[in-house]
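Appendix C reproduces, verbatim, an entry submitted by the partner laboratory led by Prof. M.T., so that reviewers can inspect both the input and the predicted structure.
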Amino acid sequence: MRGAVPRGSSRAASQAKWLEVVKAHRVATSRRADAAATLVAIATALARWAEWESMTSRPTWEVLMESSGRSRATVARALKALREAGLVGIVATGRSAGYTPMALDEGRAEAALYVLAVPSTLRSAAQPAPAGPSSTIPIDETPTALLSGEPKNPLRTGARGENPQTEPLRGTHSQPAGSDLSSVSPGRYRLVWSRHATTSRKDERRAAALALKRQLPVLRRLSDANLTHHLREFMLAGWTNADLQHAIDHRPDGSPWPHSGADGVQNPGAWLDFRLGAWRDSRGTVGKSRTQRIAADRARVQALHQAADEERRRAREARVLSTARSAQTEQILAEARAAALAAARKIRGPR
C-alpha cells in the first residue's frame, strides 16, 4: 500500500479534502473550464467509491464512465493526469477474468485498485503545468465489476471516530461517527458490486447491500446484516441495486418521492420498508422491478411484432395459394371449353 502512494505525496485524510485539493491543484486550474469539469467529475466518482479508512477506491471503468458521463478514452486521460499530478496511485491493476480464482466472477474482470493521495506543499509548488491531453493509462483492459480477492486493508488515515464529509447521491451528508462502509471481517473477500447485477448467494446479497450504502448515505446508519435483511426479498426476486435505487426515489407509477436527501429520517429501516413497500402488491408480494418491467414490455412488444410477422406470412401464403388455385381453375375451364368445341364439331360433321 505504502509503495503505491506517489512519491512526494501522502494518503488523503478524507474524500472531501482530497476533492478540494484536486479542484485547487494546477492539474485542474490550468485546464479549460470544460476539461477541468471533466477531471473533477472523474475525481468525484473515485472519491465516492473510496474506503474512508484506507482511501483506496476500486470503481470499474464502467462506473467511472457512467458516473462522469465521459468516454473510456477521456476517463483514461483523466486518470493518467491525476497519477502524474501525484493525486492518484495504483495499488493493483485490473486483470483478465480468465485468471480470477474459482471463476466466482462468472466471466467478468477485476477492477483496478487506486489510492487517493495529496502531494506535499513543496511538490505542489514545484510541479509544472500538465502538457495537454495524455495517452491512455497502461491498464490491460477495460475492467468490469468483480470479486476483488483482497482482504480489507487495516490501515487508517485518521483517528477513530473521524467524521469525513462525502458527497452522496443526493446532496451533501456527513459520515456518521463509527460507521464502517466495509464491515467485512479480516481475511474475507470484499466485493465491488455492479449496480445492474442480480444476486444468488448470501454473500452476494451482503456485498450488494454494502454497495448500496455507498450510494445512499441514509442507509449507512443500518448495519450490513440489517440492511441485507430489509432488501433480501427484493434481491431474491431478481432486483438489482439500480432497481432498488429507483424504487427508493420513485413510486411504481414513475412519480418521484418527495424528499430532501436523508434529512429528517429518524428510523432508516422503517423509512426504507415504507418506500419499497409501495412496490409490493396487496398480499405483500414483491412486484416487478423497473428493469423487469422494461424487459417484460420489450418482450411483449417483440411478441406483438412476431405475431404481426406471422400474420403477414400467412396472408402471403394464402394469396399465393389463391393465385395458384385460380390458375388451375382457369386451365381446367379452358380444357373443358376446348373439349366441348371438339365434341360439337364431331356432331355437326364436316361441312
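Residues 195 and 344 are 88 Å apart (CA to CA). Additional entries are available on request from the coordinating office.
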